Amino acid sequence: MQALTLYVRGGCHLCDQFLLELGLDLPERRERLAVLDVDSEEALALRWGLRVPVLVADGAVICEAFYDRDRVRAALRL
To answer: Where in the sequence is the domain holding 38, given as residue range(s)?
Structure first.
């Protein structure tokens, strides 16, 4: 199973919506999803800046800003 990471920022309504949609679409993956606040580490803040939310699978960006069900499913081969 691919490692999924969602980069978010506290208080970000797009991040909250993205996480909700991802959880509803792929509930079996929710437990294995790493959710990282970009403001928790300087390196993450520098890397992602305002580009949140961003969903990454095994190091490759799948989608950002809005949950794209088709891209996520294609990337995860579902």
So the answer is: 4-75
